[in-house]
Specification:
4-stranded mixed beta sheet; 2 domains; alpha+beta; 88 residues
Length: 88
């Protein structure tokens, strides 16, 4: 198994930093999971994805079959939002 190097230093100096620490940990786990699981899910719908379509893994492909466009889920900036990036 390859060694996984951390991409950022995880620190918290105050109780208020807990949310930021939680986000950093989520990102680290996500990076690790993406390196281990290379399977990519593909969603095919007749509409483009919205920020509220967040219940998918980072890297998921979304095909808008009506507009002939492809999107990739590139981040989940909050627990209930998603960022889809058009790649076609």
């Amino acid at each position: 198994m390859p060694n996984v190097e951390p991409t950022s230093k995880i620190t918290a100096s105050k109780e208020e930093d807990f949310d930021e620490l939680s986000k950093q940990l989520d990102k680290q786990y996500e990076n690790l999971a993406n390196g281990i699981n290379s399977k990519t899910d593909t969603i095919v719908r007749k509409v483009a994805p919205a920020a509220t379509d967040y219940r998918f893994d980072i890297g998921t492909h979304w095909i808008d079959s009506t507009a002939n466009k492809v999107y990739v889920l590139t981040s989940r900036p909050t627990v209930v939002t998603a960022t889809w990036t058009e790649v076609s």
